[in-house]
Amino acid sequence: MDTWTIITILLWVGIIAWGIWEAVQYFRRKNAADALENEEFKQEMRKAQIVDVRGKDDFDAGHILGARNIPYMQMKQRANELRKDQPIYLYDDKKTLSYRSALLLRKQGFENIYVLKGGYSNWDGKIKRKKTLD
């Protein structure tokens, strides 16, 4: 076997291994939280802790009324701000960070974790924007 054949085989093995790793991570994140439609989210949100896992700038630009901002990058350190005896409703723009946050919270012993299906961009309920000084 020549060098290029060996390199090609190693690249394919690496690509396949990476694909398997991504598939496993996808299913782990999906199992960490249940997805809720807008209407279901709205009906139950008064009984839950609503957490926006986007960055502060996105949160200030507009967020679901009653939500608190705990960005995904800070979730591990700030998870102690959340109560374990109440449901947690997570959302971001596209659900990716929400599911990653749910996985982090699940590892820390939280249960009853839900994610807004479609994320903030599909939210049709009440929102709040930070007032800017012009």
Principal-axes geometry comes out as elongated
Cα separation of the termini: 69 Å
Helix percentage: 40-55%
Radius of gyration based on Cα positions = 19 Å
Reported for the largest beta sheet, the result is: 5 strands, parallel
* Poorly predicted segments: none
**What CATH architecture would you give?**
3-Layer(aba) Sandwich
Mean pLDDT rating: 90
Strand content: 15-25%
Under CATH at level 1, the class stands as Alpha Beta
- Spatial strand sequence of the major β-sheet: 1-6-5-2-4
Which class best fits the helix and strand makeup?
alpha/beta
Total helical elements: 5
Identify the CATH homologous superfamily: Rhodanese-like domain
Number of strands: 7
Order of helices and strands: HEHEHEEHEHEE
Identify the notable features of this structure and list them briefly.
5-stranded parallel β-sheet; 134 residues; two-stranded antiparallel sheet; alpha/beta; Oxidized Rhodanese, domain 1
